[in-house]
Each structure stands twice: as structure tokens, then as C-alpha cells.
Amino acid sequence: MKIIVFTSPAITAQVNDWLKEHPDIEVISMAQSEYDGTIHLTLLYREAK
Question: Which of 33, 43, 44, 48 is closest to 1 using CA atoms?
């Protein structure tokens, strides 16, 4: 399992909880951006084989 850290502790917790629930997920790329005070998260992932 990979632990992912973002600037937002809430996003960090949600992403890592999701990864724990889905151990077959392999994160390929991720990006975090902010627009109008809202943090946006983009994950590109696939099911590991």
C-alpha cells in the first residue's frame, strides 16, 4: 500500500482510506490544484494485476 500526502489533511485521509479499501488500485499519476478556494484532486489509476 502506498501512503499519499497532500496539503490538505482531509484529502490525505480520504485518499489513503480509499486506497486501503481498494488494495488492487495502482495510482499512476496524481495532481492537486486550487480554484476559487476549492481544492481539486485528480487521480489517474488502474486496477493492479
Answer: 48
How much is the pTM?
0.66
Whether residue 39 is contained in a domain is answered as yes
Q: Distance between CA 6 and CA 13 in Å, rounded?
A: 9
The C-alpha cell 496539503 sits at 7
- What domain range includes position 33? 9-47
Q: One-letter amino acid identity for 43? A: L
Q: Taking residues 17-34, what's their average pLDDT?
A: 89
